Amino acid sequence: MLTRIQIQRLVHVYGQDILEHDHMRIERTCYQHGTVTTFSHSIRVACLSVWLADRLHLWKRVDLRSLIRAALLHDYFLYDWHDYDGGAHRLHGFTHGGTAMRNAIHDFELNRIECDSIRNHMFPLTPYPPKYIEGYLVTVADKISATKETLSFDRFGKADSTKLVHGRH
């Protein structure tokens, strides 16, 4: 089984061009869930996707490079969906997979596994499920990460989490 450090190294090796791209500066400034930036969320999803593939013994069925690249680019929509925009992002949950894929195709050379995984990672909010195992791993890792980030006490501040944990008001 891979260690956390080994997984992080794999993400860096296969995603270096993505992680170093100028547009990742945008992801570093936009918040995805709670106090977590889109950049950090994408790295978490990539690491968790690799962890899932490893723990489920899927190495003979998974293209590791495509898995990592799709995970890093699954939310490559390049805007802060929390900002008011006159309603253009009102359906963000339904549309951002397609936006992320279009942006990713513009900036990177992607294969069919990567495109499909990015486009359909929001299933069942999108009409079609992923076609490849890599897409399912990204979808599951995204749901797990988003839930953990959204429900984290960190988004409420340390004082609030201490009060909640110890039952004080």
Features of the shown structure:
disordered C terminus, 169 residues, mainly alpha, globular, two-stranded antiparallel ribbon
**In order across it, which strands form the biggest sheet?**
1-2
- Structural category: mainly alpha
Report, as a whole number of angstroms, the end-to-end distance. 43 Å
Largest sheet: 2 strands, antiparallel
The rounded Rg comes to 16 Å
Mean pLDDT: 84
Tell me the fraction of residues in β-strands, as a range: under 5%
Uncertain runs with pLDDT below 50, 5 residues or more?
A: 158-169
Total DSSP E strands: 2
Describe the structure in your own words.
With 169 residues, this protein is mainly α. It starts with a helix and ends with a helix. Strands 1-2 form a two-stranded antiparallel ribbon. It is globular. It is 60% helix and 3% strand. The relative contact order is 0.15. The C terminus is likely disordered.
Q: What is the secondary structure topology, with strand pairs?
A:
Elements lengths: L3 H16 L4 H6 L1 E3 L2 E2 H18 L8 H10 L18 H16 L4 H8 L13 H19 L6 H9 L3
Antiparallel strand pairs: 1-2
Helix pairs in contact: 1-3, 1-4, 3-4, 3-7, 4-6, 4-7, 5-6, 6-7
